[in-house]
Specification:
Blueprint: H1 2-25, E1 56-61, E2 73-81, E3 87-96, E4 105-108, E5 113-116, E6 121-124, E7 132-138, E8 147-156, E9 166-175, E10 188-190, E11 197-201, E12 208-214, E13 220-227, E14 232-234, E15 241-249, E16 252-260, H2 262-273
Antiparallel strand pairs: 1-2, 2-7, 3-6, 3-8, 4-7, 5-6, 8-9, 10-11, 11-14, 12-13, 12-15, 15-16
Length: 274
């Protein structure tokens, strides 16, 4: 009786293990970049007796320091540096800082990478001896705010098992939306510092716009359509502090800093410091 039970268990377990190993041999599974919106990192499968290959992972991109443009494609390279590993893999994703939703579109540029997690992540196609992967990312057509790229890499010993591998992570944090000179909208903001209301004055030729106020955590607090006749925004309910105001008019974007209740804000800083 006991032998029959053991035999039945083996009939279930062995195919299941084989299926898992086959799936891992075809590349990283979905959703393991280490981002807040993913399931975890490669450690979720490779945490049994971790190895140490002095590994590190680097994300490089053609996105300039000033930020990304909307609907623009950028090159990415992920490099997993190590000493002594025989196989390598990675997973990478991009998420909005405000709510950790996936943002943008990844595109493999060769057979070494593939899309996973319904296109929300990109990963190596197969565990390989190579340790560098290239692909592109296209930014969205509408402003998602600042974003962060998350990557996890696995320097593996190549035994197709969960032991003896070295998992590392890296981020490219708080990448902002950049504004080129041709798309920059100049506007006047007054009074600033503000107490109850703030006024927006357009340059000549601009009749309508959309104004949004964000806190420094990226949360949108106010959104209002404004015009040359209705250009005032009520700030009375905002707490004392510093905010970001964005104004959109057609394809142009303007960004300025708004200070609410300057004296109260300074007093708050003093109280926190002392």
């Amino acid at each position: 009786m006991k032998k029959n039970i053991i035999f039945r268990v083996l009939l279930v377990v062995i195919p299941a293990i084989s299926l898992i190993l086959m799936s891992l041999s075809n590349g990283a599974p979905a959703g393991w970049s280490g981002s807040p919106g993913d399931l975890g990192t490669c450690y979720n499968c490779h945490d049994v007796t971790p190895g140490n290959f002095n590994a590190s992972i680097d994300i490089s991109t053609t996105i300039p320091a000033s930020g990304y443009e909307l609907s623009t494609t950028y090159d990415f390279t992920v490099t997993l540096s190590e000493s002594g590993a025989s196989k390598h893999g990675f997973a990478l994703t991009a998420e909005r800082d405000i709510d950790n939703t996936k943002v943008g579109t990844f595109t493999p540029t060769d057979s070494n990478t593939r899309l996973v997690n319904d296109g929300g992540n990109i990963a190596q196609s197969n565990p390989s001896s190579g340790n560098s992967w290239t692909f592109t990312w296209t930014s969205p057509s509408t402003d998602p705010g600042s974003i962060t790229f998350y990557a996890a890499g696995n320097a593996a010993n190549g035994d197709v098992g969960p032991s003896g591998d070295h998992v590392v992570t890296s981020t490219l944090s708080n990448v902002p939306l950049g504004v080129s000179e041709a798309r920059r909208l100049e506007f006047k903001l007054f009074p600033n510092p503000s107490i109850d209301v703030v006024n927006i004055q357009f340059p000549s030729g601009v009749l309508m716009a959309e104004a949004e106020i964000f806190d420094y955590a990226g949360r949108k607090l106010i959104s209002k359509k404004i015009s040359s006749n209705d250009h005032q925004i009520v700030t009375r309910d905002l707490a004392s502090g510093i905010y970001i105001i964005r104004v959109f008019a057609g394809k142009k974007i303007g960004v300025q800093t708004l200070i609410k209740n300057y004296i109260n804000y300074l007093q708050t800083l003093i109280n926190k410091r002392f």
